[in-house]
Amino acid sequence: MRIISWPIGGMIAASLALAGCAATVRDQIYKASATPIDVTRYTQAPPQPLHVRTADGLTLGGYYWPGAADDHDVLIFFHGRGSNQGVGARYAEHLTGKGDHVIVVSYRGFGGNPGTPTQPARVADGPAFVAEARELVGRDAHVFLVGHSLGGAVALHVAATTRVTGVVTLSTFDKLEESAPGGVGALLPDKWNNLDAATKIHAPLVMIQGTADDRVTMTQATALFGKAGHPAALVSVPGAGHNPDMASLGPLVSEAVAAIDSGAMARYPTALPAGWSVQHK
Fold first, then answer.
1. CB 39, CB 61: distance < 8 Å
2. By the 8 A CB rule, do 147 and 170 touch?
3. What DSSP designation does 45 have?
4. CA distances from 114 to 34, 77, 87, 194, 245 (A)
């Protein structure tokens, strides 16, 4: 995944890493903005504010749309690099209105939240949102992690260590380290090895990938799918780029939740537009 701009063949990134400037490299990996978010600018029906306490004592501000009282499904949405919880809410709003509860995660260092984004911090904060989901919906909640791009990486790594019902990724890469040129990958402070995480997930996985994505290739998506357990599905969307068109993909995500709940992954999705394709395992 071309998640970092590598000037002069990666030599600047290499020099920064060798000099111990991990924070500077991470600035490029995450592109976090600390500017507070007004969610009403991003959504049609603004969600409720949600405050989650992390294991190390930070309070992170996310969002929550309550679902039906008798619905046990809760979808937790993880946004991507250079984004914020407002954009995450814009995407996640397309998952509401079907009875499911929907939570939007916000990371430390993004959108007015305290702290600094790192891979260990992001992965450690994920279970705090999972625990909050179970507090809101109940101990028998069916927790689904949905992530876009780098948010999909977070979802995969959280699911590798935390009990969840299912995972859905949108435009998620295989391994950040291998995307860097000329040996620079070994110097990155955060490796995001999603291939390894996929082997440790004990829940169904649905991947949705556009064939015209200029950041994550179908080759990367296929490699990630190859490491997934069973059951899993890879939906290929012809002509789709990196940022998801949730008006068309939202129903596909909701159908994935229903298919996982009912044990019908082998028949997911029940129908696809012309030119779309799906692989199962």
1. no
2. yes
3. S
4. 8, 20, 19, 26, 30
Handedness of CA 87, 92, 94, 96 (dihedral sign): negative
**pLDDT tens per residue across span 178-233:** 655 555 567 788 999 999 999 999 999 999 999 999 999 999 999 999 999 999 99
Please identify which residue in the block is written with the tokens 């998801």. Answer: 244
Q: Is residue 159 classed as helix, strand or coil in its secondary structure?
A: helix
pLDDT at 177: 77
pTM: 0.92
Sheet holding 59-65, edge to edge: 48-53, 59-65, 101-104, 73-78, 142-148, 166-170, 205-210, 232-237, 277-280
Q: How far is CA 127 from CA 10, 212, 247, in A?
A: 34, 33, 28
pLDDT recorded at residue 11: 43
* Strand partners for 50: 62
pLDDT beneath 50: ranges in the chain: 4-12, 15-16, 18-19
